[in-house]
Queue: 4 jobs
Job 1
Amino acid sequence: MTMRAPLLIDTDPGVDDALAILMAHQHAEVKGLAIAAGNVGLRHTVNNALKLVDVMGHETPVFPGCATPLVLDAADAAFVHGADGFGDTGYSRSTRAAANEHAALAISRLSREFAGQLTVVALGPLTNLALALRLDPELPRRVARLVIMGGAVNGRGNTHLVPAEFNIGFDPEAAHVVFSNWPTFDLVDWEATMHHGLAYDDLEQWLAADDERARFYASVSRRTRSWARQHGRQRMLSADALAMAVALDPSIIVESAERHVGIELAGGLTRGATVVDWEQRMARPANARIVLGVEQGKFENLIRDALGAA
Ligand code: BDR
Ligand code: CA
């Protein structure tokens, strides 16, 4: 059962971020979009967020955040999402302005305004959240729930460093700050994403809905849908949509495991890996509820609703 709970989304839109943001506005009270660089540079991720707010007809504030990872530069994912992060469709730019408050400060402020109620959903590199934590170490006490899309819990990542997933691999130091200071969070990783793909035919049917959101998402996702087919993916994978489904409706989780998860910072082949203490040998308390499976039907219903498809 989904609720109209207050939600704050930290994100780097990004095609699958866009779908997650549509889902959130359908089912929750979205208090803000905190924007990071990741899939593409910050100028584009901010513009894409502003455009989405227009398409949805909402007034959600957009808070620009960190333009680079905390320590080392990292490669973006424009080869998947397009140079502008939204499939290079040439959409007309939004005329609305971004908020004049840094994303990290907005995260801290909103956690005070909605103390004990706010769910934070992190769909991009964790740079803004790490900075917010350093500025405001009491932040986790005021946040009701944190859901992170990131990691590859058995080492099957999706970047050139084999075990690293993109969001963690883009800014491992930020992930380390969050994973080692946030007492407990839900983790939706790349491997769960691979188990919960969407059939292309179903998705195309939903995208044919007579709804502005479906038309816009059909347009910006065209490139990634064809990229996925060309790369032999049997189904369309949408990591951020899966994480958002878990945030909106925790009852869809059918399998999970609570374990300690750390971040590898230094490995030559493993920088950015999420290292899970599966056998619980480290005697460290579990920080993550790792989502291993969800009810596919409920996940798909949340997407359909957000696209206005029957
Ligand atoms: C994650 O990386 C990005 O490309 C997607 O938006 C998602 O957040 C998946 O690894
Ligand atoms: Ca993302």
Note: The mean pLDDT is 96.
Job 2
Amino acid sequence: MAQNEIQITRPDDLHLHVRTGDALKSVVPDTARQFARAIIMPNLETPVTSVEQAGKYRQEILDAVPEGIDFEPLMTLYLTDNTSVETIKAAKDSGFIHGLKLYPAGATTNSDAGVTDVRNVYDVLETMQLVDLPLLVHGEVTDPVVDVFDRERLFIKEILAPLIERLPKLRIVMEHITTSDAVDFVMSASDKIAATITAHHLLMNRNAIFTGGVRPHHYCLPILKREEHRQALVKAATSGNPKFFLGTDSAPHAQGAKESDCGCAGMYTAYNAMELYTEVFDLNNSLGKLEGFASTYGAAFYHLPQSTDSITLQRQDWKIPASLPLGQEKVIPLRAGESCHWTLTNK
Ligand code: DOR
Ligand code: ZN
């Protein structure tokens, strides 16, 4: 008989964008309702590059958590060509910064201040290895000549593999992996190398960007890939291998910024994230593997204690609203106007 209910340790979202200001106030409650903690991305319009900025940003997030909910933002800093060794040491000493994010300059939203050549930050990465602070990687090459569907595969070969060879003890999370190449690479790498996987890359392949016309709300980076890659991701996520864990990459943009002649990359999945992931695991007869992926492996990789709280999901259809508030604007959640087949009971 089909399992109709599942209770798991309160999960962690190990890759999340919450923006700032009024937009932040709109989206933080969606994540806090489901997750114990989240790794907060630092790619604000003014990137979070210092411990002081991260401290203020952390407080802004905490102030937006609804009364009665325990939620801990796990902060990160944005690596630039000019990040200093002192900043790395201060980040480690802060106790609330859990990693540094490497955006290759120009790779995605607000990445212009990112690293122009990984060799520029080798001394900083060496210090991170020394103090054992993880590196979180947006793994795509930025050469505009390279086909957008090949950028992750080339990044692994040209940048990530040499980096690991040079710094074999550095903990690295390859964020939001999208290809079978990335799955294979992470599986064959040491236990210092892990990866997050989004719900949208588990649920959709690249046809979803073009179903009946151009679908701007299905555009994200790294871009959705072929079905064979989606299947490799599902296999990795549901395998019980602790190198693969949950990171939504929920990335809210106002409706107008998505539905534009140059639409922004990012999908808003924080509203129904756990329901979407549960659906994937259910469809693949692996509900028993959900807790490891969502609540255990990520915490272990980041050297965090597991949450002592739990959440419960039930097999029950519910309709996702057509839109949600995002400050004074609107954001279109994934599956807007359609159904989710699992429901979080203790919302
Ligand atoms: O789709 C994406 N949106 N990918 C990223 O890497 C960044 C994110 C954002 O911040 O909007
Ligand atoms: Zn992201």
Note: The first strand starts at residue 5 and ends at 9.
Job 3
Amino acid sequence: MIVDYWKVLLCFIINLFLNYSYINGTTEVLRPRGVPLTKKSFYDPGKDFQCLDGSATIPFLLVNDDYCDCDDGSDEPGTSACSNGLFHCSNIGFVEKIIPSSRVNDGICDCCDASDEYNSSIKCDNNCLELGEQMRIERERYLELMKQGNEIRQTYIATAKQKIDETKNELETLKSQMNEVESIKNEKFEVKNQAEELEKEALEKHRAKEEELRKQKEDEEMKNREIEETEQASLVFQKLDTDADGIITLDELKSYSRFDRNNDGSVSDDEAKFYSNGLEQLVLPTFIESSWPLVKPIIENEPQNQEEQASEYQIDDTNPETTINEDESLDHAEESDELEHESGRPLIPTESTVSSITLEYDEPTQKLVDEAKNARDEYNQAEGRYQDIQTKIRELEVVLETDFGPNGEYMALKNQCFELEENEYVYKLCPFDSASQRSKTGGTETNLGRWGKWIGSEQNHYERFIMEGGTQCWNGPARSVIVHISCGDINQLMRASEPNRCEYSYEFKTPAACVLNQSIHESTDNVHEHNEL
Ligand code: MAN
């Protein structure tokens, strides 16, 4: 019994030391070491302590006795006895903090009020007031920034409201114009169709006339050629008919050295027969029909130079009659084009030069063509106007459909682009439009994505947006950028990185994000600017 009495007394003394001896001589509310104020009511020295998870109930003296009794470690908030316990530092003057109780008295200062190292090998200073002061200064600076930014944000909101009203009005006006413009377009379409129908008929007639004329010219040309060809053939006939008896014999052909096909120095019977087309003798019509097509190429290939002419053309030096005049031969050669002989066989195949004929329109046709052109122009104009209005309507609708923030404040960033040089690239952001990247050394821009959507958290939907569907990454996803938004006094792209290949991250500051709201006041309240009592 006496032993039990001393045991309880010892426990009490230890407990008193562990529980309450840490108090800094300040006005902090008395409670066991490591317990946050919010949980003070669970630690009533007048009652047994019930583990916070309900796993056990122990005499209050066993709280913070450096022995772990509760499964959740809640009986040892101020010692390192439980591996899962939590130690609360009040950090008066700064921000309260909860650390794993295993860090209590581990020789490392975790709390600025030094409360975690109350029985430690090292001495920690209490610098909460200095830290609190620093934090307050920073917070004030931040609040000042917020205030300034918020003022700009208010102007953004006002401008956006005005812009949205204007957009709505413009949209209505355009929509009402739309019907009128569409009916004009339809009317012009009808007029154009009718005019084109008449134009088509007139042009068909006109083309038929042109075709007829072309045929006439072609026939004429053919006839002329045939005449020329016959004349040329007749001339050659006369030259070859050396005795001028109206008949070309094989001997006469043999006397023309150019008929020496195998170049053996003389024209054989066979060679002569080749050019007579197998006939023993030729009168003019037979010559024209059978022999001329074979002879003509020889005549046309007459050598140009005088000496050659002498040696090649002269059948007999002494007989000037047998010499074919070079000029004559060449003249005729030039003239010889396609000429179809009466028998239907072309003497020398050539092409007609009459490929097409272009006739000027007669007056009525010209009038119909002009009218159709005017109708087309007018229709195109009306159609263009209609398309312009459609495009404009769609643009305005997109503006009205876009989420420019809770009060439209982000509309101020539309039609603006921001750039930042980071590592080897220049990164660009055009909010609500596109994002891109280009090498600092030049070259083309790589599309990193087009406007996607806001993807912020539940608390702040507008803290992030995504630009998506950029250029496909080789063996990877289409490029995309997540843009993290924060408050700044000016619009500025602050950072750009590529945390995963082809997945980029931008940090963007803007006054549009400077919202002076409840959460700021709440977070300010977390600072223990005053003592708890
Ligand atoms: C380019 C750039 C890089 C990207 C690679 C992927 O070099 O767009 O940012 O990582 O392509 O191949």
Note: Residues 437, 446, 473-474, 498, 501-502 surround alpha-D-mannopyranose (CB under 6 Å).
Job 4
Amino acid sequence: MTLRAVDLRCEHLAEPRGLNDGQPRFSWALEGEGRDRRQTGYRIVVGADAAAVAAGRGALWDSGRVASSETLLIPYAGERLASDQCVHWSVQVWDESAAASPMSETARLWTGLAASDWKAKWITRYWVHPDGLQPPANTPYDNPWRARPADYYRHEFDVAQRPVRATLYVTALGVYEVRVNGRRVGDEHLAPGWTDYHTRVEYQLHDVTDLVHGGSNVLAAIVGEGWYCGRIGMTSQKAGAHYGGRPVLLAQLHLEFADGTVTVAATDERWKTSHEAIVYSDLLMGEKYDARLEQSGWDLPGFDDGAWQRVELWDAVPSAPRLDASRLQPIRKLHELQARYLKTLGSGEMVFDVGQNIAGHVGLTVRARSGDVFTLRHVEMLTPEGEPYTDNLGEAAQKDIYIANGIGVEVYEPRFTYHGFRFVAIAGPAGCGPDDIGVVGVAVHSDTPVAGDFECGNAMVNQLFSNIVWSQRDNFMSVPTDCPQRNERLGWLADVQVFLRTAGYNMDVAAFITKWMVDVADTATEGGFADVAPSKPVFATLPVPPRGAPGWGDAAIIVPWLIYLRYGDREILERHYASLVRWMDLIERHNPDYLRKNYIHRNYGDWLSIGPATPRAVVNTAYWGHVADLMTRIAGVLGRRTDRARFEATFRAIRQAFQSAFVDAEGRISGDTQTAYLLALDFGLVEGELADKAARHLVRTIDEAGGRLQTGFLGVKHLCPVLSEIGAGKHAYALLLEDTYPSWGFSIRHGATTIWERWDGWTQERGFQSPKMNSFNHYAYGSVGEWLFSRVAGIDCCEEQPGFRKVLMRPLFHPDLGWCRASYRSHTGKISSHWTFRGDEIDWTVRIPANCTADVVIPAGYKVRRVDDASAVRPSRFELGSGKYTLTLCLDFTGH
Ligand code: BGC
């Protein structure tokens, strides 16, 4: 069987809708039966004609056969790609015996619109908040937080004949839904997503060929405030308008006819606008929808829009943001969970449980009279008395209101808000009972493709894995947020860097994080990176702005490095390199003695740790050492030899200073905390004998804490990996399997379906933690997920051949788990590992993708007895080529 190229990706996406660079990069994975399969050559074919490309003819580019084993991120080198083009591509590969594959299935990509091809004008609606509390007649304004009614836009235009191709380019400052002739375009939710709107906004591209016809057509849109001018971040309820005062829309429809001519319909002063049924919408507060205000046919040709206002043109001040093609998968509605009725409260509200803490909204089905009001309050938890627990939501109201039209069965889902919740309390009209309404939980998140799967013989660990995945889903909402429920929901940098290795196993986050790194770069000033990306303009005016804290600002270096390791993408390092060097310069300039005590801004330390606190100077200096070490490697990858030598020297100087200031001859580190030892060991700040001593102290601190963890956001990620590295794998498993406070298992024993922000978010003794900061859906402590894949299952990447060209297979078997089965779809192909205890023996089946090799490390105490059915002697570390193997292992009493 020949090798086959599958899973075609361009710029980390299955189908990019617009390019921001004229030289897109192509990648594929390989499949092929048997063992030791290798690619010895490839050929990429690109053209506008799908059938020709499928047949191996590329009018734009035919790379010809290139002798190479590369499959990742190969740059386009054909004819210049024009704006507004859809092109197809396909790959042919040659295997180890020079046998050629057929052409792969074709994939598409859109080039998008060049800046100079935008003709559309930004449009907006004049609407002022009425003064006082009484809204003028017919004005649907009635909320204390002064959220605007959504803006409805329409434009009718004639087309002489049916186009052969219709492509819509659209975006908003706000959040929008777009429609052509009454039909919703695409399935994106909360588009265009969040960026620093002062700098850039992403546009979306849709093929609407099937929706446009000859004659009269209508292009229409609904626009809400969203991140642009609604309430975001740690905001008070009335403080919206962080980027601008009112939402604006930009749309451009390209119609190509059979004779090759192209006409454009775009937003301009001729468009009309009105408000309609969305009385207001806000990401944090909720949405109110009055179905009686629907204007039937508003988005169809022939609608009488005489009563609608003319739009205003938006004079961008000082200038309009840059229009970038979308770099990541859109937010979509991805899971539906049937809710279970729990009880009716004294207030008359009916409480439903969707069974899982999600981010999203409720799909409500009612049969009601015109004017009947349904109010939905969303919470993560119930109080011990079974009441909705709202204290931890801060100022986020998370409340939706639906007013029925009385037309029979009505289905309502809010458009421009999302809530973090498991329980919903619904107040309906008098006489409405739980059987009269349908309630489903709709989980929404950025549609990053599922990459990993993990299961083992321990139910609690499986629930932990599920909780980690759900916290990732619930917080990957265009940007990686800290939490989905309270008035925060910000892209805190440290949370991302500690969780990124885990996130990358669960889902393909290459595109998502590449885009977010652009947000991070957009926060950079002369003073370094912000702690939150996208940054919020008002932050800049705070006395101590959240900017450049150790572990937070440093994420700007850690994150691209982790993306490079996982996906082999060197360009992300190159693109951000200059600003990373600047960041290193700044820290060094302020800390000439190589202890990081200055320029530490908000200095959060090992955030939310419990037990003894790790001295901040230890944490900060350790992190500086870590990023100096990473910069050494990054400069090495990029071939910058002088920088490499410089950062290596910086790292040595920091290590020296760290040891002299914080480590005694017995390897005891200032603070004597788990996190102090974890960071020093993992970041290479203690070596040789000193490292052995520090390792013993680490184990001691865990023993002294009764075998419990005490780590905060920064320390927790290193716990199980470092314990495994120093030969204390048993301690790592003990922490994993613990279910008394504090542990991951503790939250699970108390019903958690997501990862809590705090170890003590709720305890028997104290009940709920301080409501000021007590999210039940924060992924940082879920960073143990990377260890489930990398050490429990034993699937990891290697620095020497990044992108999983070489797989490090290094499991740690444990009888209490019994078995473990995991798979990971890397960009090079699918890897799997499955081990089972059978009496004294372990069967371990691994699959290594074609064109890849595995560096297999047998854990101490075991040896290989058989490979497949034949007895075999293997050293404790050996290499395997691609294919499926079953190794049988037994205890090794000789010990290695
Ligand atoms: C956020 C954290 C964040 C921290 C910074 C909190 O409010 O929820 O996730 O990293 O602030 O200290």
Note: The chain has a mean pLDDT of 95.
